[in-house]
């Protein structure tokens, strides 16, 4: 079992398999995208799988694949299968924009991937195209259907709430009534573009305090709008009944709903004390905290060192994992380069 210097159990590894993406979400990437890492800079699947093997021996049992957009990387299905077969790895999850999910859902499910998080911030097709700078909402909704058809479970929607986007939160809440869909509202975070957060808006590419909506406010809005729409009283779901999660979401439900509504509050309610994760970037850096740019180079070790050397890097990352973060300062890397 892996524990860090503060006694937290670390059993969850998020792996960014690519920094590339087929969308350019306003809060994640600049309009022209970022300069992609060169082929040699990005870890090969073999290198990632070797890292996962060693990490599993150190106590990692859960892996989430992310990106950039993980489904744009060729060979992703076989990669999932091999990771799933790694001794000690109990489950694999994927975070995706779902634009390519219809193509891959059945194969991914066969390869052992059941847990899926789909990122979707609006149900309005025009707004979706604007937020993602070119994406088509119909592709995502089709990808969501494909996830259910492929028997994935749990199926979650991640909604980043940004004030200036004026999202219809109730529209998402309604989607949880008839089917086991778990919608999680996530506070907008200042990641990327360090030092440039003060004078722009999300649409102009940058985080502002004014665009941050706390999860307390999100819950108040959901309760009031849900009651007014006849959905009943929003009630907290006990942890034991919540959709199996690896993270810090708190879950709620309208009476009789098949799915749930979750909130994730990295800014308004720190959950650093419960942090259970490490992150591996596509270019082979270990990040011990989403909000810290202190990274440990594991690529060099994967390319020239032994498994013992890789193990030492993991142990030094655990020892260096900070107690918490001062997240309002932003980070050098953007979210698409970290993986969320
Ligand atoms: N491309 C995939 C996707 O969009 O699901 C995976 C990578 S994306 C960076 C992972 C998650 O980070 C997405 O749910 C996205 O909405 C979220 N994200 C990106 N920038 C964010 C920000 N500034 N604050 C909060 N969440 C953010
Ligand atoms: Fe791409 Fe995901 Fe970032 Fe959107 S949030 S630009 S889909 S990596």
Please provide a written account of the structure.
Strand 2 (62-66), helix 2 (76-84) and strand 3 form a beta-alpha-beta unit. The chain has ten helices and twelve strands. The longest helix has 14 residues, at 215-228. With 340 residues, it is an alpha/beta fold. 29% of the residues lie in helices and 16% in strands. The protein has helices at 45-57, 76-84, 101-110, 125-132, 137-149, 169-174, 215-228, 299-304, 307-320, 335-338; strands spanning 12-16, 62-66, 91-96, 115-119, 155-161, 181-187, 235-236, 250-253, 260-264, 277-280, 285-287, 295-297. A twelve-stranded mixed beta sheet has the order 7-8-9-6-5-4-3-2-1-10-11-12. The two termini are 24 Å apart. It has a single domain (12-338), classed as Aldolase class I (TIM Barrel, Alpha-Beta Barrel). The radius of gyration is 19 Å and the shape is globular. Residues 194-201 have low confidence and may be disordered. The chain binds S-adenosylmethionine and iron/sulfur cluster (SF4).
């Amino acid at each position: 079992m892996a524990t860090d210097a503060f006694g937290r159990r670390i059993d969850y590894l998020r792996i960014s398999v690519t920094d590339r993406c087929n969308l350019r979400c306003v809060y994640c990437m600049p309009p022209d995208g970022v300069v992609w890492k060169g082929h040699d800079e990005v870890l090969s699947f073999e290198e990632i799988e070797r890292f996962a093997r060693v990490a599993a021996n150190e106590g990692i049992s859960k892996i989430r694949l992310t990106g950039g957009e993980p489904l744009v990387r060729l060979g992703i299905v076989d990669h999932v299968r091999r990771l799933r077969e790694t001794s000690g790895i109990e489950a694999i999850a994927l975070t995706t924009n779902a634009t390519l999910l219809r193509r891959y859902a059945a194969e991914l499910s066969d390869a052992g991937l059941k847990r899926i998080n789909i990122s979707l911030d609006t149900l309005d097709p025009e707004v979706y195209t604007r937020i993602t700078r070119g994406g088509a909402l119909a592709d995502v909704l089709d990808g969501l259907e494909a996830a259910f058809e492929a028997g994935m479970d749990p199926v979650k929607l991640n909604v980043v709430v940004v004030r200036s986007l004026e999202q219809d939160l109730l529209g998402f809440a309604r989607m949880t009534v008839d089917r086991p869909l778990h919608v999680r509202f996530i506070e907008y975070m200042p990641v990327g573009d360090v030092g440039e957060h003060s004078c722009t808006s999300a649409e102009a590419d940058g985080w502002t305090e004014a665009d941050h909506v706390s999860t307390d406010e999100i819950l108040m809005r959901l309760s009031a709008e849900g009651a007014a729409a006849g959905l009943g009283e929003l009630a907290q779901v006990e942890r034991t009944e919540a959709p199996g999660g690896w993270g810090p979401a708190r879950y709620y439900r309208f009476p009789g709903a098949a799915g749930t509504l979750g909130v994730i509050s990295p800014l308004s309610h720190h959950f650093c004390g419960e942090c259970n994760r490490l992150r591996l970037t596509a270019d082979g850096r270990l990040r011990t905290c989403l909000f810290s740019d202190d990274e440990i180079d594991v690529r060099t070790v994967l390319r020239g060192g032994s498994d013992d050397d890789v193990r030492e890097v993991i142990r030094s990352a655990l020892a260096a994992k900070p107690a918490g973060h001062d997240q309002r300062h932003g980070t050098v890397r953007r979210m698409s380069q970290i993986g969320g």
